[in-house]
Design brief:
The chain has 315 residues and is of the alpha/beta class. The chain has one domain: Rossmann fold, CATH 3.40.50. 36% of the residues lie in helices and 16% in strands. The strands form four sheets. It has a seven-stranded parallel β-sheet, with helices on both faces. Helix 2 links the parallel strand 4 and strand 5. Helix 1 packs across helix 5, helix 2 packs parallel to helix 3 and helix 6 crosses helix 10. It binds NADP nicotinamide-adenine-dinucleotide phosphate. NADP nicotinamide-adenine-dinucleotide phosphate binds next to helix 1, helix 2, strand 5, strand 8 and helix 4.
Length: 315
């Protein structure tokens, strides 16, 4: 299979490309700044700027301006929205021009559901109403255009991804970063965000990639919640990190401190999303890291955090 991966330079995309190549599939990275022989360029807001290689069978679309880890001002919110809406439009145009792409796996996020308390959120749950929920709906609607087009054979899946845990990049790496803006665990101050009662939808990066490969291999369509099957609350995450690192994890991080740092984006950390991977499990997929303790032991075990690429094993 030959897969074009937008955002193939990012956290999920780079692991996905590595796994595809490891199992002898071919991958072309679509980047705003292509650097190597297997990378092609595009200009997200320029119509017709993406030309998929003739041999492409499937597209995995992951590109978009960062949602977490940055303060949201109006410019950044516009970048979050426009990069996804316009980027997906470019992908859909390119798939139409190509004419014989079998499958599009298009990024989305559990942000689709908004802040939902203790509600059990399967793929059938109604979307939320906040900024990110609206972005996710528009992002998915752009990709759905190609599913509804009878002139092309492309099936479309949406991956509503939870917080991806990795030791090098993303939310977990940020929490453990000794030089980043939020580094509570390094100073022995780790603790839950607010009350810590909010549900925290998570997935180990290796399972995120395995799930995308499963969707590609099985030719699956429609929305999929990409989260581990075990639901945990924020306080369970912080206590599990404290256990693995052998550091205290019981001093709550107050809302105002995170609002000062991240503005409206801080709301994401307080949102409660009890997301269930119903369709993924129903399709026969099993995560390798079902419990947060196993996931953290794999990522940051041995009592310390030494960021380095692990040997990947994808079944
Ligand atoms: N990681 C998570 O926890 C998580 C959770 C839920 C959903 N997601 C979603 O899944 C997708 C992939 O996540 P990720 O963590 O791998 O993202 P990432 O590491 O931030 O990488 C995304 C890629 O998008 C491209 N990009 C960045 N800014 C852009 C912009 N303004 N316009 C167009 N492209 C831009 C970059 O590639 P180039 O610089 O090469 O163009 C970047 O490598 C994202 O859409 C993200 O929102 C991620």
């Amino acid at each position: 299979m030959h897969v074009a991966v937008t955002g193939g330079t990012g956290l999920i995309g780079s692991h996905l490309v590595e796994h595809l190549r490891d199992r002898s599939d071919e991958a072309t990275v679509v980047s705003r700044d292509p650097t190597g022989p297997d990378e092609i360029g595009w200009v997200v807001d320029e119509e017709g700027s993406l030309e998929l290689p003739e041999e492409t069978d499937a597209v995995v679309h992951l590109a978009g301006a960062p949602i977490v880890g940055q303060r949201w001002d109006e410019d950044h919110k516009r970048a979050i929205r426009d990069s996804r809406v316009q980027g997906t439009r470019r992908v859909v145009e390119a798939i139409r021009r190509h004419g014989s792409i079998d499958h599009l796996v298009s990024g989305s996020a559990v942000g689709y559901y908004g802040d939902r308390g203790d509600e059990r959120l399967t793929e059938d749950a109604e979307p939320g109403e906040d900024f990110l929920a609206e972005v996710c709906q528009r992002w998915e609607a752009e990709a759905a255009e190609i599913a509804d087009d009878p002139t092309v054979p492309t099936d479309v899946a949406f991956v509503r991804t939870g917080i991806v845990l990795d030791d090098e990049e993303g939310a977990l790496a940020e929490m453990l970063n000794p030089v980043g803006p939020v580094r509570p665990f390094h100073w022995g101050l780790g603790g839950p965000v607010g009350s810590g009662e909010q549900w925290f939808p998570w997935i180990h990066v290796e399972d995120e990639v395995r799930a995308i490969l499963h969707i590609l291999d099985e030719g699956l369509e429609g929305p999929f919640n990409l989260v581990a099957g075990t639901q945990i609350r924020n306080k369970q995450l912080t206590s599990a990190i404290g256990d693995v690192l052998d550091r205290p994890a019981n001093l709550p991080v107050p809302r105002f401190a995170l609002q000062l740092l991240y503005g409206e984006a801080a709301d994401l950390l307080f949102a409660s999303q009890r997301v269930v991977p119903e369709r993924l499990e129903g399709s026969g997929f099993t995560v390798r890291f079902a419990s947060i303790d196993e996931a953290l032991a794999d990522l940051i075990g041995d009592g310390g955090h030494e960021p380095q690429r692990r040997e990947k094993a994808v079944a």
